[in-house]
Amino acid sequence: MIYCGIYWAERTHDVALVDDTGQLLAKRHITDDAAGYKILLDLLAEYGDTEESPIPVAIETSRGLLVAVLRTGRRKVFAINPMAAARYRDRHAVSRKKSDPGDALVLANILRTDMHAHRPLPEDSDLARAVLARAQQDAVWNRQQLANQLRSLLREYYPAALDAFTKWEGGLCRPEARELLKIAPTPAKAASLTRAQITAALKRAGRKRGIEAEAERLREIFRADWAHQSALVEDALGRQALAILAQLTAACTASDDLAQAVEETFPQHPDSEIILSFPGLGTQLGARVLAEIGDDRQRFADARGLKAYAGASPVTRASGKKSSITRRWVKNDRLNHAGYLWAFSALTASPGAKAHYRRRRDDHGDWHAAAQRNLFNRMLGQLHHCLKNRQLFDEQIAFPAPQELAVAAA
What we know:
With 410 residues, the protein is α/β, with parallel strands linked by helices. It folds into 3 domains: 3-121, Nucleotidyltransferase, domain 5 (2-Layer Sandwich), CATH 3.30.420.10; 135-263, no CATH class; 273-409, no CATH class. The protein is 59% helix and 9% strand. It has helices at 34-46, 65-70, 82-92, 100-114, 126-130, 133-157, 159-165, 175-183, 187-191, 195-204, 211-222, 231-265, 272-276, 283-293, 303-310, 333-349, 351-362, 368-389, 395-398, 402-409; strands at 3-8, 12-18, 24-31, 57-59, 77-79, 315-319, 322-326. Strands 3-2-1-4-5 form a 5-stranded mixed β-sheet. The longest helix is centred in the middle third of the chain and has 35 residues, at 231-265.
């Protein structure tokens, strides 16, 4: 067999081909453009790459145009963790020397010696990859980061705004809050706002109910006795707040647009009905779960592999007379985060899930996070079963009553 290793960079890439004995057959330095990709494909074809017998490729990334070109046809692409590649490099050179062509050779030899220990990229469908759950999650995180920056700034000179917007769900991310800060970025300007100006701002933000009462509440808060910075400093901080506010507004718009895109795309996927049948999973959270586990059912040999990938199952560390069981630290952080939210929501959506959580707390002495992780571990196994067998979630089967368990055991 022939094995290919590619050390990728921003503008150029190094390619190495080796045979079964580790002999270097060819190496190339290609550019990151269509011409470079053609040189790479021609090189692979020259050494026997065909649709029936493609040459496996190792590379240190799972995304980008280069990976998309390599994944055409039946070719297996292995995304090698850079930390793992660094350990393999030490097997070839103890002097710790490093070069891009040398790293390409190391990647090719990883497949030659240990291809069985690494997984190729899953063959997810285009529809699964088109669900913009990751992008929407990034937009939410960016929005929250900017909201935290604005909140920290307002604490320095404008506590009245924080007190006024705390009552609202969403806080500074609410359209009403952003509209009021836009017309009154300083406490002095807020104190001078009339009831009519506050009412108009609330209406521009899209508020429909309780406008008059809310305007009166805000007016009283803005005109209350608060500590102030000097006028010059207050004005400067107000300008800074407007700059962050502009970024926050853009982030809120991006988050809403991507959420709408997820709402439109996710229901089109054939797995969406099964995922949404689980308690605690809505469209946004269900789309995040699908985006992380994909729809290639051969990706995980069994439910245990999926649980380990999500960080839901514990890991055992045993050496000599010492043995310990701890949580997993190496995992898919996005799926693990989605699982935390999923398990938390399932506590109120599923009586069986809540009973399972209480048993872990009361009978096993788990802390809240451990009990919730155990619940996520169980429901993830149920999801794997339902997706594999094309079944909807059934509360009675997933969490049978104690008497039903006794009958089943008998």
